[in-house]
Amino acid sequence: MTTEMDSRLTFSEINETACMRRHQFAYVLGIRPRVTATALRIGSAIHLALECRAHGGTVEDATECAVAGYDAPGDALAREVIRILVHAYYWRYGADTFVYEAVEESFDVPIVNPETGRASRTFTVAGRRDARIACVDERRAVMEHKTAGVHIGPDADYWLRLRIDLQPSIYLMTARQEGHRADYVLYDVIRKPTIAPKLLTQADTKQLHMTSSYFGLPCRIEFNSIGEIEFVNGEPMPEIKQGTNGYAIRETVGMFGARLWRDIQERPDYYFARREITRLESDIAEAQADLWQYASLIREASRLNHWPRRTSQCVGFGRCPYFSLCTSGFTGADLSRLPPEFEIVQNVHQELEQEGE
To answer: How far apart are the C-alpha atoms of 227 and 238, rounded to whole Å?
Structure first.
């Protein structure tokens, strides 16, 4: 028995072929976890902000677009992080020095057999480019926005990997197949903060009491007659812990935001980086061959209706979202046994939807 599949292959789908069973769950059966990880939500929110700004919105418009939907009580910290990152991004780069030729542009082009030059009758390669831009030096580029949780300094492995990564090759290859000039991919990377709200030291608390300011945020604390902290004005009452040497205040969301903003100002290159990623014609040819092989791998698994597991992917870089399904004995044969923390989606290629939908 074969399983009907969407004929479009995306970069996200190709990544899931590291474990063919995970690919089956996600892109053949359409099984997805119900809860979206906060880190992924932050990345999507930043994309929405940049897209809004590229369409002519102000920085404030972009910020409001990004934080829309972050209204639940537990979203306050993520909302503040997104707000700070969006404002800091435009503080870092200022006005654009390029012209947008296309924003959130879809593509869907044939996968070509590298030996015969003929298009596949089964699959195409599809995706969305964040933007195509015309630069001041008259070159043209595909612009790719990324949020990362790893080091993005000049010596980072992040950039070394991009020398051989398939995604930039796909962007350049497909843009050229569609008749667009594309000289390179401009990777525009934002690093997610690694700091978090903290307990103030006794010295920090004393300084706050004396200056009524916390990293530039007006913030006054007062003590009652027996030395207990009563309130912080301008902010919700913070968490206060009593220790052997007195009281310690945990930063409120606003206090943390003020410290994060100062940290970004002091080391902007830690949080923001842009790098040109180029490809030779031989690189593009190799990417075409890779795409053909990935398509062949998926086609053969579908023909046999067998999707082998690769257990090295279960708990590698974080736990696989389908780990609980596999270890419970779920095979996908009976979808009525699907646990409630998962759902079936109708569109397996949600990455192809407009960000604002």
So the answer is: 16
